[in-house]
Fold this protein.
Amino acid sequence: MSTAAEFFHAILRAAIDEIKSRNISVYTFAFCHDHAARAVSVCVDTKASSQHSVQESNAVSLEYFMEALADGDLKEASQWPANGGRSLTLADFALLHIARQEIGDVRVNKQFHLQMLRAVMAFQDEIATLSQEPAELLLTCSGVDEEVEYVWSLPQVVQQ
């Protein structure tokens, strides 16, 4: 039986090796816990993929926004804002479920997601090397309630 930390490190190592072999510039790196499937994996998005997803989402939002305005429904219109940033919708990412592993005998307890976060942070210097623009790189991690619950950028020291 491996510890959660060893389990997470093995997944991250395999994912990083896979990303390197594909020569992909990472824009968003997501460490994911699929609660229903009892599995952990990495999803990666590129800047081009994220921008495409945002443009598609904004086109749909604009349609509903304009419809609500035509109806004079400001409350409904406020529910359809444009996305001025990036996509965090894992299903739209360029690479899905890299190095996916079932949880098996690893205990999902209070420390599980904290250990996931700490594992990503232990690899963040190496993850930064996978991005052409480390200053734009975002790291995400699942939590108890959300697939993308924690989102952070790299410290300036790591980016240089």
Notes: The chain has a mean pLDDT of 93. The two ends are 38 Å apart (CA to CA).
